[in-house]
Amino acid sequence: MIRVLVSAEAEAFLTHATVPGDIAVDLLDPAHPIPAGAPHAGILPLLTRRIGAPEMDRLRGLVVIANMAVGYDNIDLDAARARGIRVTNTPDVLTGATAELTWALILATARRVGEGERLVRARTWTGWSPTQLLGTGLNGKTLGLLGAGRIGRDVGRRAGAFGMRVAYWGRSRHPAFEAACGARWCDDPAALARESDVLSIHLASTDATRGLVDGALLDRLRPGAIVVNTARGDVVDEPALVERLRTGRLRAGLDVYAREPAVPEGLVGLENVVLLPHLGSATEEARQAMFDLAWDNLVRVVKGEEPVTPVV
Fold first, then answer.
1. Which position among 40, 158, 232, 244 bears the catalytic label?
2. CA-CA-CA-CA torsion sign (160, 215, 149, 91)
3. Measured between alpha carbons, how far is 273 from 253 in angstroms, rounded to an integer?
């Protein structure tokens, strides 16, 4: 019998999966550490579970870490390589859901939806006024994509519906994307910021990207510009962003934070920022698809087969 560990938080998705008869599943409580000496060949964790060398060494016979996320910055890839452990992720299946959430943040921030909803719930709304909570229209404005991977490009492809131009910067150019939606390549993040009315962040968290969106880059944005982040929180220098939000120079829509679940106090008290609790892929369809892909990867590797979406 092959024993595997699955995050208890994903148990609801496991009920829809096919479990081969020679695989036994144990659930891992998110509040508990990985049990020492556990005889598990595979583990299916969430992004919130850090798996470094100590955690890998606690599992006897571990051959695969099937991350239920497109990102894998919670896993020490070097430690996995050194131990011959495969690492997989779940790209593609959450692209559309995260792109939709990105647009929800863009629209909510531009049209001050959160402020309006709070006004109504507080029962302090006194009626329609021609100058009440004036936002900004998107038609004719420029959407800047900081990062143009699967999600960034999907966000860009939807910009035409709102009459927006698209500019982007990333690790590489995408001629097909440029041709499909008229996207314009920028040489560096600073050039992109200068062009952007909305700066939407779609970068993985790496040594090269952490803190990339700092005060200097934010200052290159036009006054009144919107910063949206549905990628990773530590890509943004949060104190620098808070300062520019506090002065009213920028607005923001954030789904991710540098030290989740902690949200900087400086953000919580501001009206010109929309704050969400990491909902990027939070649709029933996307989360089930994420689990199914992670589970398929895990089963394949513990049975000696190649995974569908390998990272290592």
1. 232
2. negative
3. 6
